[in-house]
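Q: Convert this sequence to structure tokens.
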Amino acid sequence: MTDPAVPHPAPQYADRVHRSASAAFAGALLLALTLWLSVDAMVNGHGRDPWIAAAVLVLVVPLLVAYTMWPSVRVGRERLVVRNPLRTITVPWAAVESVDAAYSVELRAGGTKYQVWAVPVSLRQRKRANVRAARAAAGGDPYAGPFGGMGRRASRGLDDGRFPVGGPGLRTAGQVNVPGAGRPDPTRAWSDRIVDELREAADAAKGREDAGAAGEVSVTWTWWVIAPAVAGAVALALLLAL
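A:
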């Protein structure tokens, strides 16, 4: 039996990690193509060709991984970790000043502005979200039309009683199984939803009396990318100059 006088530690939750799936997919394809071409040149090339292919491989592979699959945003209880291609920024929540998304997601912390590579801003996706928001404001269904979900006629059917609450196909009485329930908000673009989440996490952390939420911004360089890329570039320049 636990002692009620002893304070219980706060529950621990897993960090939430956000990254661009499309960027990671494109990076994997480019990486596979680069490996195929470079290995083929190293095996079947003549003269300096194998050495040039090896230098290109050392130069390109780290950059491909760093700019496509490596970037991420890790949202923890005490801090925010932003992994950019060449730098990793660790920001305690108390040091977060603002998070904005215009043409790119920008984090301002410790008096410095950082770009968040892992959350690219898609103007096309934002335009579609604005159309859904306008449809929802007009009383329509944001999931209707070309964006999926049920049609407008079925949406009206929920209001005129043709689909009664608790009817067939509904799991529990009093709960309407509306298509789109539980999905992300269709009236907000993906990057804007991430920005909203980061702002809410920062506000929640600053409202806690948690010593772990305070501290200074830490920036570390991604040397496993920089060192081989520089070495590959130098080797490639020397080989081409010979």
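Strands lie at 16-18, 72-75, 79-83, 87-92, 96-101, 105-109, 112-115, 218-221.
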